[in-house]
Amino acid sequence: MAGQEGSSDSGPLDLDATSMVAAEGLSDSGPLDQHGHRCDWSAACDLAQHLAGLLNELGQASSALRDVRVELALSAPVYARPITESQLGQRIEGVLRAGVEALDCQAAAMYLLDEETSRLHLRASWGLSKQSVKAPPRELELAIADLEALVGHAVVLENDALFELWNVPEPQFGSAVCVPISTPTTLLGTFWVYCSQPRDFIDRETNLIEILAGRLAIELERELLLRQEKSRPT
Predict the structure, then answer these.
(1) Is residue 68 over pLDDT 90?
(2) Do 213 and 100 share a domain, yes or no?
(3) 178 CB contacts (<8 Å, ≥6 apart)?
(4) What is the model's pLDDT at position 85?
(5) What is the pLDDT of residues 76-97, one digit of tens each?
(6) Pair (115, 178) in one structural domain
(7) Residues 128 and 36 occupy one common structural domain
């Protein structure tokens, strides 16, 4: 084939043979191959069209197979084991702890909105003091950083100079990040990560905090769906 070394009898195409192929490529008689045999140009075009058709069909089949796999995955029955309150709390605290350790921070907290979306309640934490855990709910209208996060903007405070302005819930730390906890349709609350020292959080670290907040949202939404399913009349 073209592009491979020929035998000692024929050898590779030289410049004159290549020019002949190019010159005869548009003729009805067809070009000569490297062995001196004349090719049927019309048959070659038909073969190319058939090959193109087969490749298109193969691509369509692969796309259809992918769609079928997605549909099967979505329609597969989900056997969810009921989760107790303590198990859910342990899983959420595990996410908080993993985030704190991965980011080399000291504490993290999850604040959830109440049904009236007027207050933020501390529902889970890692590394906070007992006094912080017992603190009353925060009024949402006064939680400036949380409001900004719920709009969709991560709030990164590299030092405590603006803590009072942003009304940070744990002002004893040196820096903090606040991101929203939300699903595509529902705002659930906010996720705070605290560091004891002033710190410049880079984009990769902020992205990780947002990923952790997404994991929290998944855990909460899953629990809510399971409760709704359990409460339905049989």
Answers:
(1) no
(2) yes
(3) 145, 146, 148, 149, 154, 155, 157, 190, 191, 192
(4) 56
(5) 444 444 445 567 888 899 999 9
(6) yes
(7) no
**Distance, CA of 47 to CA of 53 (rounded, Å):** 10
Give 86-89's long-range contacts (Cβ < 8 A, gap of 24+).
Answer: 88/219, 88/223, 89/124
Handedness of CA 101, 102, 107, 109 (dihedral sign): negative
* CA-closest candidate to residue 112, choices 183, 171, 203, 194: 183
- For 195, the domain range is 85-231
**201 in Cβ contact with 118 (< 8 Å):** no
Is residue 4 included in any domain, yes or no?
no
Say if residues 106 and 199 touch (Cβ distance below 8 Å). no
Domain shared by 137 and 165, yes or no: yes
Smallest CA-to-CA distance from 122 within 189, 206, 197, 40 is with: 189
Instruction: Name the domain boundary from 75, 93, 120.
Output: 75
12-56 pLDDT tens trace: 444 343 443 444 444 445 555 556 666 666 777 777 787 887 787
Tell me, yes or no, whether 80 lies in a domain: no
